[in-house]
Amino acid sequence: xxxxxxFLCGVCLAAAQAWxxxxxxxxxxxxxxxxxxxxxxxxxxxxxxxEPTDTAELPGTTLQLGQQxxxxxxxxxxxxxxxxxxxxxxxxxxxxxxxxxxxxxxxxMRGGAVPISAGPQELPAWNPNAGGIRAVxxxxxxxxxxxxxxxxxxxxxxxxxxxxxxxxxxxxxxIAVNNTKTSLAFYRDRLGLHIAGASENxxxxxxxxxxVPGAHVRITSLRAQAGPGIELxxxxxxxxxxxxxxxxxxxxxxxxVIVMAGRGFxxxxxxxxxxxxxxxxxEPD
Length: 285
Known about the structure:
- By secondary structure, the protein is an alpha+beta fold.
- 20% of the residues lie in helices and 36% in strands.
- The model is unreliable at 1-19 (pLDDT under 50).
């Protein structure tokens, strides 16, 4: 009997300790600071088919695309630097899945987008993890980078193969990082996200996509149990990406926030910055 009780107590203690481990369960939304809220709402709803949601308690305007959402918040901080590049460490974009990238790209350009890429690019077949994916980068009215992405059959989540709408939803938020290992220690080991995929992309298609000459990118996709993923972009070439300004403030327009929900963290509403300065907010489940 004593042995049984001791065993049971040990199991309960282990379960309690496991439950207390900090773990992000869901990525809820991405908060994007903008200089003109009305203009940004018009762009995201008009050019990208986001729809307003009834969240009057939030300080900004919440928009939904498919099952994913963003929050646009008016800020009076510094603008996104006009000379920003895809390998600068403040780089962060939403990857918006589409069913027809050529039509979608024409739509966003008519809606006022500013191009980054030299048009939609198809990643080459020699790359087993990314071959056949089509993608293009552009900027919103405040200079935030965005991506349209179209997955071929067999790649991406199964529901991204839907053809019932042009703009389907948000697959992930991609962030430039200085070192994959350091970022994994933060996102995987500290926050509990799991690796969902990885690839290394280079060649003329990647150069034209990112507008970085000689681009060679190590890509690591991370996910929680639900919500958009987080994609780490570690540029192996070129390595001249600039760090985020040390005095970055939450009001600065490049300071987007990934809002997560999880358990086992020190306090509710925890605000963090990752090793490269990207902002996170963690709420209780």
